[in-house]
Amino acid sequence: MAGECSTHGDPYACPDALVVFVARFQEYGLVIHDGGSSYAGMDYCPWCGTRLPESRRDRWFEEMERLGIDPVRTRCPRSTGTTGGGGGTRGVRQAGVWNSDGVVWRCLGVRWRGGEPCWVWEGGRVSPLPYGRELFFGVVGERLCPGARGNACPVRGVLDGRSTGGLCADCARLDRMMSVAADTVSDDPRVFRVYLAWFGPGLVKVGITAEERGDARLLEQGALAFTWLGRGALMAARRTEVVLGAALGVPDRIPYAVKRAARVADAAGTEEQRAGAVGRVYRDAVGVGAWGDTLERLPLEVRDHTEAFGLARLRRLDGVVRELGDGCVVRGELLGVAGPDLHLRLEDGRFVVLDGRLAAGWAFVRGDAVDDGWGPVVVEAGGSQSGLF
After folding, report:
1. What's the Cα-to-Cα distance from 325 to each of 115, 158, 160, 348, 361, rounded to whole Å?
2. CA 136 → CA 9, 78, 129, 346, distances in Å?
3. Which end of the chain lies in a sparser environment, N or C, as judged by fewer CB atoms within 10 Å?
4. pLDDT tens-place string over residues 51-62
5. Beta-strand (E) ranges in the chain?
6. Helix residue ranges, H only, 249-336
7. 197-228 residue pLDDT tens
8. pTM of the predicted model, to two decimals?
């Protein structure tokens, strides 16, 4: 409901902004364009009539008073214990950890920008994820739905720590309503491309993506190598995807655990071996008749993502982070990122994966705010976490 403007970083400066969401108070308001930063509080959504979450303004100021902080004269901590059920002591441990505006840095997950992975934060901030560097942060408060399609969640729904969907039921419905992948959008005028993605021996998928996105979709899925098959209108691309999927006998989706195992195993082979495997399937696809009549067929041009993923550093997989929670700590060397998966070497030497989708909705604090009262994340041995993408 409170969208973001690509031109104005401040919603009060944007003449098109109607609604603002104030994270520290967890409240929505109608923007008053008077040259300042005024807004009128809202109790109900003006479009659908849904009751909005109760404002935490009073609770926030009470917590400031309890901590002896004057919010008018002093920059405020990112978290004061008012964002969830973690108790008041969490705020004391985090005192001194702030950003420029005193608002919690809430994570939206891992994204690929310009061929490189990064954290994306509520409010539009982006932080790179360089390989070989330590990743060290604490998790605080409740996990709140980050919203869908650039719209803030109208109810700020609380999410389960193990959910990789990362959206509440209402936002998940909105996301699906606007999804090309879910076949709920049939009139998208953009040019689409059909791709052949390779995740390991016998792990092949045919899919589509908007041409303007380049190979971002393949990076998001964790494809080790791929080639384009054709380009054209949405429905022609969708038909080709279905026809080739059936003719080649490839699945629509591949389990996470299978992709992760192939990623770190010797079965991934060399770049030449991967190119050869993609080329063989490409030739089989070309041999399937009819689809070339409705799409512009593209030549074989295998692209390899193993360097982008840091594959050479991923020696093995000892486990998968099961969930994040208030008061837990993630600390380890970032070896690589493939799709949404962050591959880490923990301090005890274990090689584990943190699914970046589990981070969406959580508020993070820097590692220097962590003390002995925090605990490590729970790691499930063997990397058996379920899920598909």
Report:
1. 30, 12, 9, 21, 11
2. 28, 17, 12, 10
3. C
4. 887 777 777 677
5. 19-22, 27-32, 38-41, 107-113, 116-121, 126-128, 134-140, 192-200, 203-210, 225-232, 296-297, 303-304, 319-323, 328-338, 341-346, 351-355, 363-366, 375-376, 378-381
6. 256-264, 271-286, 306-309
7. 999 998 999 999 999 999 999 999 999 999 99
8. 0.72
